[in-house]
Design brief:
GO biological process, one term: protein folding
Strand content: 15-25%
Number of helices: 5
Order of helices and strands: HHHHEEEEEEH
Distance between the termini: 158 Å
Subcellular location: Cytoplasm
Helix content: 40-55%
GO molecular function, one term: protein homodimerization activity
Organism: Auraticoccus cholistanensis
Pfam families: GrpE (PF01025)
Oligomer: single chain
Length: 214
């Protein structure tokens, strides 16, 4: 037997017909049907708002550690940049000092090279003196020392020093007609200008000037 205090178990059947089959009258809509839907919507809104309300609080100690780490990183980057600039300056200064020292030694050897060149021109570069002279020339060439100055090249006051001056009819511009002492340079830097005799185009005579004016 079924306990009268308990409701029967089983499926619930709801009559959703709009027209009553007995009275043939239009039934009013049931307000209870909208209630579960409204409750479901309210539940979804509450669930969506729950994560925002339950956001974890920021740990002050962790924030302080992150700020300290950022500051130390910036200090390390600045220190590294300063070290790179310092190393670049040191390398540049070291190269300038080395080049200055090499130039100073080469400048002191120019007189020896002049003697070697003069002995070769006079056929006196022989024996042990020849070996020593050629050895000095090889060492200086290895450090970038080169000679310049030849007869027939245009006169350039930047690299030539005129010791003699004359006029000539076979030149069209100031020209080095004789090299009295060769010049030397290291790279583009001139250690000693070439000492030369310079000839310029011959000045017109008085007769030529008169004929040109007439």
């Amino acid at each position: 037997m079924t306990d009268p205090g308990t409701e029967p178990q089983g499926p619930t059947i709801r009559d959703r017909r709009r027209i009553d089959p007995e009275t043939l009258q239009v039934r009013e809509p049931q307000p209870e049907a909208a209630a579960p839907a409204a409750e479901a919507v309210e539940g979804e809104v509450a669930d969506a708002a729950a994560p925002a309300a339950e956001a974890p609080a920021v740990d002050p100690q962790l924030a302080a550690l992150e700020q300290s780490l950022s500051e130390r990183t910036l200090d390390l980057q600045r220190l590294q940049a300063e070290y790179v600039n310092y190393k670049r300056r040191v390398d540049r200064d070291r190269e300038v000092s080395r080049a200055a020292g090499v130039e100073s030694v080469l400048r002191d050897l120019l007189a020896v090279l002049d003697d070697v060149r003069s002995a070769r021109e006079h056929g006196e570069l022989t024996g042990a003196f020849k070996a020593v002279g050629e050895g000095v020339e090889k060492v200086t060439a290895r450090h970038g020392l080169t000679s310049f100055g030849e007869a027939g090249e245009p006169f350039d006051p930047q690299v030539h020093e005129a010791l003699m001056h004359a006029y000539a009819e076979d030149v069209t511009e100031p020209t080095c007609v004789q090299v009295l002492q060769v010049g030397y340079r290291v790279g583009e830097r001139v250690l000693r200008p070439a000492r030369v005799a310079v000839a310029e185009p011959a000045a017109p005579s008085d007769d030529q000037s008169s004929s040109e004016q007439s």
